[in-house]
# Entry
Amino acid sequence: MKFLKSGLIPAICLTIALSGCGGEEARKASFLKKGKTYLEQGDYDKAKVELKNVLQIDPKYAEAYYMMGLIEEKRQNLRPAFANFQKAIELDPTHIKAQAKLGRFYILSNNMEKAQETLDAIFAIDPQSMDGKLLKMIILARTDDQKAINFAQKILAEDASQLDAIRMLAMLYSKLKESDEAINVLKEGIKTLPKERTLRLQLAEAYARADDFKNAEKTLKDIVALDPENLADRINLASFYAQRNDLDKAEKEFRNIISLKPDDEKGYLLLTEFQARRRSVNEAEKTLLSAIEKNPELYNLRFALARLYKATKSNKETDVYHEIIKLAGFKPEALKARNELAKIALTKKDIDGASQLISEVLDNNPRDNDALLMKGEIALFKKDYDGAISAFRTVIKEQPGLVEAVTLLASAHLQNNEPELAKEVLRRGVESAPDNPRMYMNYAYYLQKSGETEAAEKVIDKLLTISPKYLDALKAKVKFSVARKDMDEVKTMIEKIKAAYPENPEGYQQMGDYYAANKQYKKAFEEYEAALKRSKTLLPALASITKLHLQQKQFKKAIARLTETIKKQPKNAIPHELLGEVYIAQKKLAQAEKAIRKAIDINSKWSLPYTSLASIHLAQEDINGAIRVYQKALETLPKDTQIMAKLARIYDRQADYEKSMRLYEDILAIEPDNALAANNLAATLADKKADPASLQRAKKLAMRFENSTNPGFLDTIGWIYYKTGEPEKAVPILEKVIEKAGNVPIFQYHMGMAYYKTGNKDAAKTHLSKALESGKKFQGQKEAEQVMKNM
# Structure
């Protein structure tokens, strides 16, 4: 008995130890298995919960991080996906699948050097790794189609079930216009992987590219037959019919979706969108009204009806929203309807009506972002900057990556004369949404506008590492390269635009500009013609072609080209306007006026012909004629601020300052942020009226320019400080003006007068002398001469 007892204690201890260790490992394995199952089923939320359980047990388990990366990748959250794959490799450098994923991310961001390093690391671990071979195939496909084809064939000879190799091989054949080869590869792939729908979709696309629409249709039908309840596959089939203009079959498929799930709003929404685009708005309206009658609780159908009415500019839109509010009371759908009504009220400048609706929403949901954004915009309109900032900050607290909220908050800080806070908001916006290109663009634009050009370009460079094909970033990079006069880089960036967007006219237009600037006119013409071929409009390509002809004095060629275009498109105002510009260049003003008036007759709402016509009058010193043209333009285009500005400048030249100031006020009523109008109005008030009330108004207008980099704007606020008896504020601002544009006599005069007022007579003499010795006349010249005599 003693023996038994003595042996029992260590046995129990061993059992406890084993069960504790084994239990934890078993739980980890169980959580991991569940996570994999949920991941395969596409239930990413549940998969994530299970994997978090794994990491609670073992925070250094690489496989769990790898699977977390797969979840984020599936959700298109690329940055966290990348971070999870990196973490997996950090914990286990031999985790080949994580390495391979990382390599693909490097390719995606165009970092081929890092992709190759990753591939080398994989083959160092396992020279026969299939993940490594697939990565190598993708790398080859970036530079050499034939080598990539050969390598993909080698992979499939080794393992015919490698999906990525099948798809890549077919894609490469399609790229090389070898349709039969692409189709054969996909058909063989389907034999090996009969349930793989992506192969069948790619096969349907290959048939369509080969104009074999019968087999494309059959393939899409086969996909639907594999999983009849998969809506995405039915939508693909319906879209195929719509693209083929087989509208009856397309509509039948959309109706099949409704029959399959009659209680699901998606089918109705798809059908009515199709009807509105391809049939008629009336059909779409009837379908929606019928669907709403059958499914009164599906509020998204009502919102779709409201959008339809909005698109057709029907007054029934508000009725729909009021009906939703009547039915839903203060449910989320009713709050959304109130927000929509508030937006309509704001477009009608009904601030009180919008505010009432917004208050009703926020009383029921204080965190409603749409309502808070509108509340902030109303506060901005009322110049209640603190209220606006508070509203926008509340939104950002909930959604730090919301571009609209970040942009509005930055704007509020700027209008509140807090540029550094605006800059910080935009910087944090990039941190909060590191995958959102618009955040980078907004931040870069602000930096550039603030004179921080180098910093702005760095932001664009960072964006291009994340989204190498983002068009706005590529265009911005071209502009930065032009500013630095790095013409090799200019050409490289334009080539990237053309490669990324071969059917977009933008790249060809910019390449034409590049060649034109380098006087390679033949190549420029070719690029502009390519742009014109791809463009839905004649501008800017036809204008560039015309300009090239004018630069080379090829008037006959320009006229012939434009006359030919007019024959093809007689109701298009553009070639008539351009023909007028050619005649202006030839000084054939009567013919020019005839062509331009024709452009106005065709399109009276296009402002350019009015400007051209006014220039004809100005060329003949017919000032009143030019004024009449602009006045006529404003009858048709009452809110065209560019026309207003041009007319205001004529009034300025005529010393009719009351009329010019009224126009600048009108511009600012339409565009409160219009810097040129604010500057010109402030300068005119300060120089031409100069009474205390006018000076205070001028000062208020010009305060926005204190941090500007524009010497003209800085001079305005500096001179106003001088005029209001604040020369100590004027001096540091005007010193910046002289640094940037010391060759302008009036700037030297203003600087000298500011120094004179502060008692610095030596500095005053220096700057007033420079102004007077320039040999150019300037406003205030007599005063400068008198002050010099007094000193």
Summary: Residues 564 and 575 are 9 Å apart (CA to CA). Confidence is low (pLDDT under 50) at residues 1-21. The chain is about 80% helix and 0% strand.
